[in-house]
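Give me structure tokens for this 231-residue protein.
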Amino acid sequence: MYRPRYAETLQNCALPRTLQSTHALMEALVATRGFSGSGRRVTEQPGRLPPGQYLTTDFPVLSAGPTPHVAREGWHFTLQTGSQLIKTWSWADFVRLPITTLTPDIHCVTKWSKFDTTWEGVSIDDLLADAGLEPPTAFTLAHSSEGYTTNVPVKDLTGGRGMIAITYDGKPITPDHGGPARLLVPHLYFWKSAKWVTSLEFTEHDQAGFWEERGYHMYGDPWKEQRYSGD
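Here you go.
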């Protein structure tokens, strides 16, 4: 049975529910050594910040243990349906695909938000086109090199809504932020944007991933504050 290391259990700024039992404790965690930067707050812009969030100019990282370092030359990305592989790209193949730039706001379940983040990568639409594939199901499960998984509906990945990002702010994504490649689904809470992503599996049903199995919301809309199951 796969048992994530401590660093993995903090993937994508998600925290165990027992650590989020009070707002005060969450605020304390924002200032811990698990984050890079000061976590400073800036002036909010009305109508742009989801409820319960605060705005930061930093890019916090929740990873208190070892961070995976995946070499680009050894990285591959795969589309699959269940255990059936549809297409696999090496890094060299991947970077030859059309590159898209997105500048979205991102929102973490631990309540920080960051505006105008700039990412480059390959859209899920372009990956599907290169594979000659129409989505075979309505749901996906993203897989990471360290065994992390998270579920995302196909409709939230297509139509320009999702990508496999390979740069942040004009530079290769660093390992602590999920490099060499991470899923980017910025309109959902950021734990859905899986770090160190290696495959996207089409599933017949909306299959819970790592955090969803542990009580996090199956969808994770920040505008509806869908942090936990039942929200």
